[in-house]
Write a structure and sequence with these properties.
heterodimer, A: 7-stranded mixed beta sheet, 4-stranded antiparallel beta sheet, 0% helix, B: mainly beta
Amino acid sequence: DIVLTQSPALAVSLGQRATISCRASESVRSSMHWYQQKSGQQPKLLIYGASNLASGVPARFSGSGSGTDFTFTIDPVEADDIATYYCQQSRNDPFTFGSGTKLEIK
Amino acid sequence: QIQLVQSGPELKKPGESVKISCKASGYTFTDYAMHWVKQAPGKGLKWMGWINTYTGKPTYADDFKGRFVFSLEASASTANLQISNLKNEDTATYFCAKEEEDNSYYFDYWGQGVMVTVSS
């Protein structure tokens, strides 16, 4: 199985940039996607195919990378962005998620 | 607009079974696969597998082979997840998620989740 490694937490000041990384244990090409999950809610798709913004998602969110190293960025961070962010790969079965990065406001 | 509406919370005893549903609307149900994702309390997301909504063929991740069954009521645009012989470790929220494809597969819409509590 492909293991996705994310740092567990990140604290950022409002208006600043938040950068979350996701490293895959083997290449997933561009089959990496990012989801936001707020407390008590279902996940929401933000980025698909490593860098494509999902419909209706603000341009403050972006993604980059290919192969094994991926980055998700929020710039600028707003208070409503408090959530846990998950990367997910669909290159290989089984699909796998990272363990999530909890975004906190400083 | 596309919606996935799941059934309500369940409280079950160990050894019992549970069936939860996911009703889709706003798109042609049989055009897109449906996936299932487990989230234990305070934990991350775990992919359980998927069902081909056109053929009804399910595919299970290794940890979900045996007691878990994905099924369809295609005429009602509904996907179901049944868990038999429930164990304490099945306590979790279960999400259905619609698959989309654009050079790779991802989940563009999610149900609100069903909390299943297994307790004696």
